[in-house]
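Technical annex, item 7. During the second reporting period the consortium partners agreed on a shared format for inverse folding records so that results from different sites could be compared directly. Each record opens with the tokenized structure and is followed by the designed sequence. A conforming record, contributed by the partner at site C, is shown below for reference.
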């Protein structure tokens, strides 16, 4: 009976002490949690603004349109061409994996063919449009193709047109793998809807921002996640 009574007294004491410790550390834990949440929330605009990294543009040898965001990037490039920033426009040539876009719509023409049509429709002469021969799958491949184009054509500078959130990753890739190979001026689509100070508030901007942040981490890590070009059948 003494043993049972003794165990009961220990359990009672533990129950009395637990609320005391909880009350003692609850304000500290709450303060840490609120501080972490506040820092995370107020750092979101900083991350968004950091993602957007543009260069002041000046006349260059060419204007390169990165794949994606059809037709906004091609339209922007056409405007730069009409303003006299370069004598020709380069398009990259994506390896076609399927005939459907992100919305499930059937695509009869490849992206470079569609961009070609947009450029022509917005005032760029056909003879001023050059499709880079090197096939691409991702941004790293595109910059490799642009680098090769600069060397092949004896040019030294190119204006690279892309989306706002994509600019930092383009800069990081060029700075890490092509620094000294030529000058690129990174230019974002003027009417891009990505809002750096409120990027997490809409689903599309949130997905775009997270995708780019993960892509930059991948660049910093040495590209451990890199989708290789598909090999032609033997």
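Designed sequence (site C submission):
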């Amino acid at each position: 009976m003494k043993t049972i009574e003794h165990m009961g007294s220990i359990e009672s004491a533990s129950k009395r002490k637990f609320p005391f410790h909880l009350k003692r550390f609850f304000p500290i834990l709450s303060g840490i949690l609120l501080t972490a949440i506040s820092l995370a929330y107020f750092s979101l605009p900083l991350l968004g603004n950091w993602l957007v990294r543009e260069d002041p543009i000046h006349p260059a040898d060419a204007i390169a349109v990165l794949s994606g965001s059809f037709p906004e990037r091609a339209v922007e490039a056409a405007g730069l061409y009409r303003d006299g920033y370069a004598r020709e426009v380069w398009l990259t040539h994506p390896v076609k994996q399927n005939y459907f876009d992100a919305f499930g719509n059937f695509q009869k023409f490849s992206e470079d063919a569609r961009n070609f049509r947009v450029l022509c429709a917005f005032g760029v002469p056909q003879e001023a449009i050059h499709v880079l021969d090197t096939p691409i799958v991702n941004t790293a491949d595109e910059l490799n193709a642009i680098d090769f184009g600069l060397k092949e054509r004896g040019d030294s500078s190119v204006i690279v047109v892309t989306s706002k959130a994509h600019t930092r990753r383009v800069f990081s890739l060029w700075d890490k793998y092509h620094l000294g190979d030529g000058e690129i001026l990174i230019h974002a689509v003027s009417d891009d809807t990505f809002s750096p100070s409120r990027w997490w508030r809409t689903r599309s901007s949130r997905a775009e921002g997270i995708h780019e942040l993960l892509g930059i981490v991948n660049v910093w890590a040495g590209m451990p996640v890199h989708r290789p070009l598909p090999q032609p059948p033997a």
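Strands lie at 62-65, 89-94, 129-136, 157-162, 183-188. Residues 2-51 form the longest helix (50 residues). All partners now use this format for quarterly exchanges.
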